[in-house]
Specification:
Blueprint: H1 7-31, H2 35-38, E1 43-49, E2 54-57, H3 62-65, H4 68-78, E3 86-89, E4 101-108, E5 117-124, E6 152-156, E7 159-160, H5 162-169, H6 175-203, H7 205-229, E8 233-241, E9 251-260, E10 263-267, H8 283-296, E11 312-315, H9 333-349, E12 367-374, E13 379-385, H10 415-421, E14 424-432, E15 446-453, E16 457-462, E17 483-488, E18 491-495, E19 498-503, E20 508-512, H11 522-530
Parallel strand pairs: 10-11
Antiparallel strand pairs: 1-2, 1-5, 3-4, 3-6, 4-5, 6-7, 8-9, 9-10, 12-13, 12-16, 14-15, 15-20, 16-19, 17-18, 17-20
Length: 531
C-alpha cells in the first residue's frame, strides 16, 4: 500500500527541518569568537539524510550550502562515525571550497544502529595558516594556502580529540580565536541533534524519514515543472575573469545550457584550463553555483534540498578552471570564480527567459585580509572581510546598491566591531555614487571602504571586475569597474585586482567596488515616457 504525503505535514516538516538549521546557525553565531562569524555571519548550517543528500538548509551562504553535500558524503565514506562523534574537514578536493571554510559533520542515530540523519555546518575561519595572514594568498599550490584537513574524527563519543585540535592550532596565527570558533561549531551541531531527537519523539522516526524523502521529491517536481516552462533550446554565454593573480591573462568561463522538456544540461566545456593562480574552482563550487541559479527560478517557498538538481546534469572538463585537480591553488575559486560562474549561467538563461534574469551584479566578493602584530593586545591578528557592491537591474527593477549578491550572503563587519577588534580605523564608508550601469532600469552602485592601519601589516586582496565590467542586458550599460588603492604619505597607488603588499603604520587601503549592470535601453525608456 502506497502512503500518500499529507500536504499539511509536508508544510510542517518543511518548516521544522529548516528551522532546526536556522537554530543551529543562531547557536553558532551567538557562541563564536571571531568578528567574521559573529558579526558577518560567514557560516552555513544544514541537515542531510543517511545517504548525504541535503534535506534542509538555513538561509545562509549559497556557495557553502551547494557544496556541503559533497563534504558530508566524503565524511560518510571515509570515517565510521559512532554516537557522539563528529568529523572535521576542509579539503577542497573532498567537497570543500577553500581551506578557511571548515566543515564539521555529526551523525544523528535516533535510537537506531546506523545514522539516519547528519547535521553539518561550515564556517569561514579568519586564518587557517598558509603563506599570508587570512589564508587567502596569491598562491600557486594548495599547500601554500593553509593546513589541509582530510575527513577525520574531531569529537569521539562526545569528547574533543585534543591531539587533532592541537595539530590544527599549531598551524594557525590566531589559535585562541580558532579554538573558540570550533567550539561554536560543535555547539551548533549539538543543537541540531537535540532538535531532531525532539522531533522524532513527537512524530516518530518513520514519519521523519518519510517526510525528509517527500520534501526532496516535492522540490524535484517543482524544479522540473519550472524547467519545462523554459523554451527548449541551446543557450550559450561566456565571460572572463580579470586574471589569476600570477599572470595578466584573462580566464574564460563558458557555458552551454541545453533545455529539453523538464530536464537541463549545463555544460562548461570550453572554459579555460586550470591556472597557476588561486582562482581555480573545484567541482563542488561549480555545482553550488548551478544549484543557486536553478533555485532562483523556483518560487520562494520551495525548500532548497537535493531534489532541485535531480533534473539537472552538470558537465565539466577535469583539469579546467571550473573543475580543478589536486593540488591546484583554490583560495579564490570559492569567492571569485563562483561569482563569474553565476554571471555566465544567468547570461545564458537571459536568452531563454529574459523577463526573469537580471544584468550582471558586481561579480566579486572583494576579499580583504590584513594580518600582523597587534601592539595593543600583544598578540597576532588576522582580519578577513568581503565587501558588497551593486546588484544588476532586471525587468522592472533597478539594481540595489551597496549589498552582497549571489554566492555570498554575509553582512558587513560594523565599523565599531572592526575598530574594537583590530588595530585600525575605518576612515570612509560610503555608497560609490553613479557606478551602476545606465539603462531603462539602472544598476546598483558600489561601495567605498577605507581602512587606516595603526601597525605594520600584510594585506592581500582577491577581487574581480577591475578590468572586465559587469555586463548590462538588452541595451543596458555595464557597471563601473572596481578599484583597489593604497594611500601612503598622501600618495595614492592603484593596485591590481589581486595583490599582496606590506602596509606601514598610517597607510590607508581603499576598496572601491563595482556597480551592477543596467537593464534595457534608455532610448526605449524615453519613448515610453513620451507616450
Amino acid at each position: 500500500m502506497t502512503v500518500k504525503a499529507s500536504p499539511i505535514l509536508l508544510e510542517v516538516f518543511k518548516n521544522r527541518f529548516s528551522s532546526i538549521a536556522e537554530e543551529m546557525g543562531s547557536t553558532l553565531n551567538r557562541t563564536s569568537f571571531s568578528p567574521n562569524i559573529k558579526e558577518r555571519r560567514d557560516y552555513s548550517c544544514a541537515i542531510f539524510d543517511s545517504a548525504g543528500n541535503m534535506v534542509a538548509q538555513a538561509a545562509h551562504i549559497p556557495v557553502h550550502l551547494g557544496s556541503m553535500p559533497l563534504s558530508v558524503l566524503a565524511a560518510i565514506e571515509e570515517v565510521e562515525m559512532e554516537e557522539g562523534d563528529m568529523v572535521i574537514l576542509n579539503d577542497p578536493f573532498r567537497g570543500g571550497t577553500h581551506l578557511p571554510d571548515v566543515t564539521i559533520v555529526a551523525p544523528v542515530f535516533l535510537g537506531r544502529e546506523k545514522p539516519l540523519f547528519y547535521v553539518a555546518n561550515r564556517a569561514h575561519h579568519s586564518d587557517i595558516g598558509g603563506m599570508t595572514p587570512g589564508s587567502m594568498p596569491l598562491s600557486t599550490s594548495l599547500f601554500q594556502e593553509g593546513v589541509i584537513i582530510p575527513p577525520m574524527k574531531f569529537v569521539r563519543k562526545g569528547e574533543i580529540d585534543r591531539n587533532v585540535l592541537s595539530l590544527i592550532l599549531a598551524n594557525v596565527r590566531t589559535p585562541d580565536e580558532r579554538e573558540g570558533d570550533f567550539a561554536a561549531q560543535l555547539m551548533a551541531n549539538r543543537t541540531g541533534i537535540r532538535r531532531l531527537e525532539e522531533l522524532a519523539e513527537r512524530y516518530g522516526v518513520e514519519t521523519l524519514l518519510f517526510y525528509s524523502k517527500e520534501l526532496q521529491d516535492y522540490s524535484e517536481r517543482v524544479a522540473r515543472e519550472r524547467i519545462s516552462r523554459i523554451p527548449d533550446g541551446v543557450y550559450e554565454f561566456e565571460d572572463y575573469m580579470d586574471d589569476d593573480g600570477i599572470t595578466d591573462d584573462p580566464v574564460r568561463i563558458r557555458v552551454k545550457i541545453t533545455v529539453s522538456g523538464d530536464e537541463m544540461t549545463v555544460d562548461f566545456t570550453g572554459s579555460s584550463p586550470q591556472v597557476q593562480g588561486s582562482v581555480n574552482s573545484v567541482y563542488a563550487i561549480t555545482l553550488s553555483a548551478v544549484l543557486y541559479v536553478v533555485r532562483t527560478l523556483l518560487p520562494d517557498d520551495v525548500p532548497t534540498n537535493a531534489g532541485i538538481l535531480r533534473s539537472v546534469r552538470v558537465l565539466t572538463e577535469k583539469g579546467s578552471v571550473v573543475d580543478a585537480t589536486f593540488p591546484a591553488a583554490v583560495a579564490g575559486g570559492n569567492v571569485e570564480t563562483s561569482q563569474r560562474i553565476v554571471d555566465v549561467l544567468l547570461g545564458a538563461l537571459s536568452r531563454a527567459v529574459p523577463d526573469r534574469i537580471p544584468a550582471a551584479s558586481q561579480g566579486t566578493m572583494n576579499n580583504v585580509t590584513i594580518g600582523g602584530w597587534d601592539e595593543r593586545k600583544g598578540e597576532p591578528f588576522a582580519y578577513y572581510e568581503t565587501i558588497g557592491g551593486g546588484m544588476g537591474a532586471g525587468e522592472g527593477v533597478p539594481g540595489a546598491s551597496a549589498v552582497h549578491s549571489h554566492m555570498t550572503n554575509t553582512l558587513n563587519t560594523p565599523v565599531e566591531a572592526l575598530e574594537y577588534s583590530y588595530p585600525f580605523i575605518v576612515t570612509r564608508y560610503a555608497v560609490r555614487r553613479n557606478t551602476g550601469g545606465k539603462g531603462k532600469y539602472p544598476g546598483g552602485d558600489g561601495i567605498i571602504r577605507e581602512i587606516k592601519v595603526f601597525c605594520d601589516a600584510d594585506v592581500t586582496v582577491l577581487s574581480e571586475r577591475r578590468r572586465f565590467r559587469p555586463y548590462g542586458l538588452f541595451g543596458g550599460e555595464a557597471g563601473a569597474p572596481g578599484k583597489n588603492i593604497i594611500i601612503r604619505n598622501g600618495k595614492a597607488s592603484e593596485m591590481g585586482s589581486k595583490f599582496t603588499a606590506r602596509l606601514n603604520r598610517g597607510d590607508v587601503l581603499r576598496i572601491e567596488t563595482p556597480g551592477g549592470g543596467g537593464f534595457g535601453s534608455l532610448k526605449n525608456k524615453g519613448k515610453e515616457e513620451e507616450r
